[in-house]
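**Polypeptide and fold**
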Amino acid sequence: MLISDIIKKIRYHLVADRIGPDMPFTHWRLHFRSTMLATCRKRFRGFDETSDFRPGAYAVGCSQIRIGARVVVRPGCMFFGESDTMDETIVIEDDVMIGAGVHIYTNNHRFDRVDVPLVEQGYYPSAGVRLKRGCWIGANSVLLPGVTVGENSVIGAGSVVTRSVGDGMVAVGCPAREIRKIGPRDGV
């Protein structure tokens, strides 16, 4: 019984649509640039050769995630892009900066009824997340389903983004709120 379980686990790890520390047959490949690129270009819907997916980062539903040019996905990041209803769930455009520990989710558990345990209520429909060109997502931020972070916008560290942020804005907090437009500061 043990041998057959091991064989099943190995087969799963070789074909699963995910990359991360719990996937030993792909995770070690993230430590070396050439094997990282080969793995990411094979697994992701799109992955530019100038980008980097660091060891310790995690992605579920890789085939529905697109990562543009000059993007570094740092350790502790979690991209949950798995969806039965969408072809492309997470789009990260060129020159996006992502801090360590950023989490991106494209679906959420239902919690409509008090008479049914939450675990049995299923999920709300998936909604894509888009990080537009040049934005910066601060460390340990959480982006929830359906949000777009505008071009050259900044999300402060530890923020929880529940709704979209416009182009050239700074948004911080829990939930994140736009606090100012990016530009010269008075008195600086």
User: Anything to note?
Assistant: The chain has a mean pLDDT of 94. Helices lie at 2-15, 24-27, 33-43. DSSP finds three helices and 18 strands in the chain. The radius of gyration is 18 Å.
